[in-house]
Design a protein that fits this description.
By secondary structure, the chain is of the alpha/beta class. It is about 45% helix and about 20% strand.
């Protein structure tokens, strides 16, 4: 008799606790997601290493240009297509400061940049993100991942995944 009563009580309490736990985890996940999105509103502090061995921080960002941070991987086919597109239409985007960031070794980033002939441009920076710290800090979840900031370093667009550069820039221009 006591076992039946225990089973009935357990049949009610266990699902209620489980549902409560799921709701808690979901709300906590949503809160953390919102915090990460809010953290993107302004360019956060960071310290990256360029392919030339220099340190690149927010102090290196132009105050009179739109900035596009592209988190990429040299082996990503979408990233390769984005770099190819930029290489072919670079003359249309000279007024933008491009910061390409990857967590792969510097020599792989260098080879990638060389392959697409984008190492000589003054407004394109190729950076290494040691241990993917910036990737984690910004709550990114895919590559490529684009963050577009205005000349005051305020976020005007974020785009996880592949996107045509023309669409990315035109949409950003419309939001100004």
């Amino acid at each position: 008799m006591k076992d039946k009563k225990f089973l009935k009580i357990s049949a009610v309490i266990f699902p209620a606790v489980l549902i409560g736990l799921m709701v808690y985890l979901f709300l906590n996940f949503q809160k953390k997601k919102k915090e990460k999105i809010d953290a993107l509103k302004n360019i956060p502090s960071f310290s990256l290493t360029t392919i030339d061995g220099d340190t690149f921080t927010p102090h290196n960002l132009s105050s009179d240009q739109t900035k596009v941070i592209v988190y990429f991987s040299p082996s990503c086919h979408f990233c390769q297509a984005e770099a190819e597109e930029l290489s072919k239409s670079y003359q249309n985007y000279q007024n933008i400061q491009w910061i390409w960031v990857a967590s792969e070794p510097l020599d792989e980033i260098q080879q990638f940049a060389n392959h697409y002939r984008l190492t000589k441009e003054d407004n394109i920076f190729w950076c290494h993100d040691e241990m993917a710290k910036l990737y984690q800090k910004l709550g990114m979840n895919s590559v490529p991942y684009f963050l577009v900031y205005d000349n005051s370093n305020h976020l005007i667009q974020r785009n996880p995944g592949a996107v045509k550069l023309e669409k990315l820039i035109n949409t950003s221009d419309e939001r100004k």
